[in-house]
Design brief:
The protein is flat. The protein folds into two domains: 63 residues; 209 residues, Orthogonal Bundle (MetI-like fold), CATH 1.10.3720.10. By secondary structure, it is an all-alpha fold. Helix 5 runs parallel beside helix 8 and helix 10 runs antiparallel to helix 12. The longest helix is centred in the last third of the chain and has 36 residues. 80% of the residues lie in helices and 0% in strands.
Length: 292
């Protein structure tokens, strides 16, 4: 009884029809470009999609007079970005470079080394991997305060949280990759009198690369999320997580969205870099071959 009039009001509102018309036009354009033969035209699809979302967002905020406290317009977020470059850069260095990237490198390197060690030990495979699944299921909001108490309020505690988050996904994928070779391939290496390390370096590690990069790509997103969330539980007066919590108390939504935008761009670029390295190192794998 109270919902139907509101729905009817939305359906009959000319402002809603304007937004729907724009969305339909962009959808039709993208559908046509997605079927184009030219790779350059197909690359325009995500660009047009993203621009359409931003335009609709801007129009919806202006047409419906939405308060910036509820949802700031993209133009307001952009103005905040341009006016707070130094602050955002300091937060980016603290959270992403010091916390996320350092923890990512340490955690992934430790996972790869551990996978090679336990590959030769059935006992560790049966004992460590179940523990790893248990630790991977632990909530970050429970791990982060402990790491802050252990390692302090600076970036070291955030890197420790990231190490815990990325270690076991990479470990599980690496262990699975080391088992990916066929028995016939291993027998062939044995007929050549190859040692364990020769077989590992020339056969098993290359075969494990697709599995490893799956884990590394998953870990890119986990690393940034872990570093930001860890800052909610204690950090110096700099960092993305610190800035978000501070601006929430001041209702500074444009700054919060600016931090989110920086984190999204940094996370996407990080993922893209790992994907590019994967493409260069696993060009021989069927998943990387170009479709004719």
């Amino acid at each position: 009884m109270s919902v139907l009039p509101d729905i009817w009001a939305v359906l009959t509102d000319p402002r809603g029809w304007i937004l729907l018309a724009m969305w339909g036009g962009a959808w039709a354009l993208n559908a046509g470009l997605a079927e184009a033969r030219s790779p350059a035209l197909r690359r325009l699809v995500p660009v047009i999609f993203g621009v359409t979302l931003l335009v609709l967002w801007q129009m919806a905020v202006r047409l419906y007079a939405i308060s910036p406290v509820i949802l700031p317009a993209p133009s307001e977020i952009w103005a905040q970005l341009m006016g707070s470059i130094l602050t955002l850069w300091a937060d980016f260095v603290q959270t992403f470079v010091k916390g996320a990237v350092s923890g990512y490198v340490i955690g992934c390197a430790a996972a790869i080394g551990t996978a090679i060690v336990i590959d030769r030990s059935p006992f560790l495979q049966r004992g460590l991997l179940p523990v790893g699944n248990f630790v991977a299921a632990l909530p970050i909001v429970g791990i982060a305060p402990i790491m802050v108490m252990w390692f302090g309020f600076d970036w070291q505690s955030k890197a420790a949280v990231v190490v815990v988050m990325v270690f076991f996904p990479v470990l599980v994928n690496m262990v699975a990759g080391l088992k990916a070779t066929e028995p016939m391939q291993r027998d062939l290496m044995a007929t050549y009198s190859a040692s364990y390390w020769q077989t590992l370096l020339k056969l098993r590690l290359p075969a494990a690369l697709p599995f490893l990069f799956n884990g590394l790509k998953i870990a890119t997103t986990l690393a940034l999320i872990g570093a930001i969330v860890a800052e909610f539980f204690g950090s110096p007066i700099v960092g993305m997580g610190f800035r978000i919590t501070a601006e929430i108390g001041r209702l500074g939504l444009p700054m919060i969205w600016a931090e989110i935008a920086v984190a999204a761009v940094a996370g996407s670029a990080f993922y893209g870099l790992v994907a590019l390295i994967e493409k260069r190192m696993t060009f021989w794998h069927p998943s990387q071959r170009r479709r004719q």
